[in-house]
């Protein structure tokens, strides 16, 4: 991914960005407030380490961009690798930048299922499958996130999460929506099995 120029003299050399994707795990899904927990803990830790960035979730995938010193991001990366709430950790970019994209956000989190309906350009990248994206598509998505940030840069409380959400609830809603017929058939078959077992037990006792 390309770096971004700044009008400031090229004196700050230790500013990097880390962009990665990962899949949520069953452990992550089992927590009713996994995404909120991640966001709240990250805001506090990132403030202490002068890290800024954004975290996106959609279709069972995380997409995150964080900015800070090389050492701070390396330490964060090592912690992320140990986090059992996600897997298939893949770094898209870890490089020097001259300017932060999200300088006022210790970490803003976005659920794409809610956000995508507000921007037709984001819709074109849906369903959210970042593992299948080209480098150009990943950079395009990151640029759209930066535009989203710039529109809200004047918010008085920058680190307040825009919505509350439930990772498991979102995932179950998606699954049920896509597989209603299958689930209905399974429910009917299950009911028939229960009826058959009860009929057999009653017939043997008569």
TrEMBL record:
Gene3D superfamilies linked: 3.30.70.100
Q: Which domain of life is it from?
A: Bacteria
Kindly give the Pfam families that the UniProt entry links to this protein. Answer: BLUF
**Would the keyword Transmembrane turn up in this protein's UniProt record?**
yes
**Keyword list, A-Z:** Membrane, Transmembrane, Transmembrane helix
Q: Does the keyword Membrane apply?
A: yes
InterPro entries in the record: Acylphosphatase-like_dom_sf, BLUF_domain
Q: Which PROSITE patterns match?
A: BLUF (PS50925)
Where would you find the membrane-spanning parts of this chain? Answer: 181-202
Residue intervals of the BLUF domain: 15-108
- Protein name listed in UniProt: BLUF domain-containing protein
Q: Which organism is it from?
A: Psychrobacter aestuarii
